[in-house]
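A favour between colleagues. Tell me how you read the following sequence-structure pair.

===
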Amino acid sequence: MENSEGVKIESTVVTEEPLISALDIALFVVIITVAYFWYFKRDKQSSSSEKKPYTIQPSSLSSIEQTSNSSFIKKLKSTGRSLVVFYGSQTGTAEEFAGRIAKEGARYKMKGMVADPEECDMADLVEMKEIQKSLAIFCIATYGEGDPTDNAMDFYEWLQNGDADLEGLNYAVFGLGNKTYEHYNEIAIYIDQRLEELGATRVHEIGLGDDDANIEDDFVSWKEKLWESVCSHYGIEETGEESNIRQYKLVDCSEVLPERIFSGEISRLKSYENQRFPFDVKNPYLSKIAVNRELHRSGDRSCMHIEFDIDGSKMRYDTGDHVAVYPKNSSELVDKIGELLNADLDAVFSLLNTDEESSKKHPFPCPCTYRTALTYYLDITSNPRTHIMKELIEYASDPKDQEKLKLMASSTPEGKKEFHEWILRDNRNIVHILEDLPSVKPDLDHLCELLPRLRCRYYSISSSPKVYPKSIHITAVLVNYTTSTNRVNKGVATNLLAQLIPTNDELPQPTIPIYIRRSQFRLPPKSQTPIIMIGPGTGLALFRGFIQERDYARKEGREIGEMVLYFGCRKKDEDFIYENELQEYVANGTLTKLHLAFSRDQPEKKYVTHLLEQNADELWNIIGEKSGHLYVCGDARSMAKDVHSIIVKVVMEKGQMTNSQALNYVKKMEQQKRYSADVWS
């Protein structure tokens, strides 16, 4: 409209005598244009100059702040500490041990700090020498097939690939492992040796904890000698001061609004109401139970086939992966604690770290009710460790109860024996202890501080995403057993799963939080590569997914290699799980051979290991002559070791090798991922 009016005015002016010539107008436009560009260019430069400290610098400041937050050295210096205890933990035990060491440092005038290597700039280890009488301790678990834990992976790779000068760094290492696994404490041993190679000084010899025996005893024995070495190295003495200082303080949250109170979420408040992808250990997916059926046909044991619905979740899994399931404690046990301690379980509270420098502000999501903490966040069914016995002493009003706790908390031979028999052998949990020592009445908030976190349970996925892209299957044995005190202990996860039965009506389906954990346990890249699978009992679960995947490839018209399965159970008519499926795979040619061992269907027990020895020619034909793959899944304590010995023997005899040559051959198979094991103890 304005442009149209302007044109009309200009036309009118042209018909009269011009007051301004066209040249004047052109010059005026040029001048205005130049002035415009000069002004805005200058303004832009000026703005750029003015904004520099606020646009470019903040990202720099942010990175500095981030570095500061990840710099454990700065925290040590600013708080007058000289001891830092790093942990590599998958289940929480290493983190717990690290906290106990840091706490005890006060007895030796070494103020301690617990640190997660994943949250730290580990290159700062080179600066530890700047702190007088400093010490770095590493509590490191070995996980899977000789792998570092998730939170120690970056540190491990930094040690492998770097060549930092760590002269002046004083250190000690305690490893957490399991002797039933081949790569026993491999990561801790590597870190101990690598730190020395980089110039660091070992203050105390490495400790190796065995979770298959008594890792608590291993840790306590190592820790005692550690402090002796520390005193000798630094020329210091124990102060004698007890270290029973609370790490967290109680905060009353009775006035907190209900929508700000955690009700079982792992990390983010209301995360189960507002689900966000991606899903992981801190953000699990609340999956519906689509199927829950019994696999055993008779007998007093139970084995469940469960299917988790992941339709619409965007979750993806591969054959061979694991699924993590977040359990919750039974209401019966939770209520029992409230009854024994005469506590209001519905009171809302929070535990706040007394160490303001700690990145861990709370031991679990807070604020919440005591009922929520005991149900979702705390492990109330495992055997408490000795430091909990020590902390409970002050709450015992009966001298006899007090003396018993003191004995079990001590490191004397008598104390260790009593702890082993009364806690471990009799399988007492915290509820049983409070029942059997009735005068022990700890403050419930302190008990919540002491108890370890309730961890997720991992299950091998027994399905293939090619066949079941919208669901995850697991195969789980219900855990129930009677202890020597005539109590029935129940597996936390499996007993919860047993109750989650989907309905056929319009009622809401039962749900449970899950996430997928990646595995290195994989089928060969080429479908025509022959494989041998050894999986007695629920060891079959993972191979069910393997067979489904190969069957899918066959139906697509692709060539598939030989598939030989060794399966064993007690009785054919009782616990032969997935029998109909397996027979169908044999009939259609997907399964080349199915070797079965039913241990109790005849007078003499028969196991899969007996069948392996009988089929030495078949074994060698596949793993030796055809360069096939061999997989073992199941019990690590005996079965997996026996299988390994048989394989070495077969390689010796059929491959005409010496014992050392056969061992090297099998070792090479493992390195080439042609011999894989997914086992548990």
About this structure: The domain at 276-327+456-519 is CATH 2.40.30.10 (Elongation Factor Tu (Ef-tu); domain 3).
